[in-house]
Amino acid sequence: MGVAYPKFYAWVVIREGETMIEEGAVRLAAIDKERFEVTHYLGRAEIERDPEKVYETFPRDVGDKIKEKIAKKR
């Protein structure tokens, strides 16, 4: 049986200087109270192409919020 680390979810914006390069949703695992690791990343463009894909990685309530965020920015 594996170890389940606490999961956290965030919306990230990747910038180069003042220019936004990409944005998307991440799932992070808190490892041994020492560090975070990104376990999954879904870019905005990928979510816009297939909004239901968020439910493959994120819990329903988090997926709903991600879809709301995408809808507001259109």
The Rg value, from CA coordinates, equals: 14 Å
Number of strands: 3
* Gross morphology: globular
How much helix is in the residues? 25-40%
Count of DSSP H/I helices: 3
The arrangement of helices and strands along the chain is EEEHHH
Q: Main sheet?
A: 3 strands, antiparallel
> How many angstroms does the end-to-end distance come to?
43 Å
Structural class: alpha+beta
Strand order of the largest sheet: 1-2-3
Q: Provide the residue-averaged pLDDT.
A: 93
Low-confidence stretches: none
The tally of structural domains comes to: 1
Give the DSSP E fraction (strand runs of 2 or more residues).
35-45%
Task: Compose a concise summary of this entry.
The chain is built from 3 helices and 3 strands; from the N terminus they run βββααα.
Q: What does the secondary structure layout of this molecule look like, with pairings?
A:
Layout (H helix, E strand, L loop, with lengths): L6 E10 L2 E13 L3 E9 H6 L4 H4 L2 H13 L2
Antiparallel strand pairs: 1-2, 2-3
Provide an overview of this structure.
By secondary structure, the chain is of the alpha+beta class. It has one domain (7-72). Helix content is 31%, strand content 43%. A hairpin with a 3-residue loop joins strand 2 (19-31) and strand 3 (35-43). The chain is globular, with a radius of gyration of 14 Å. The model has no long low-confidence stretch (mean pLDDT 93).
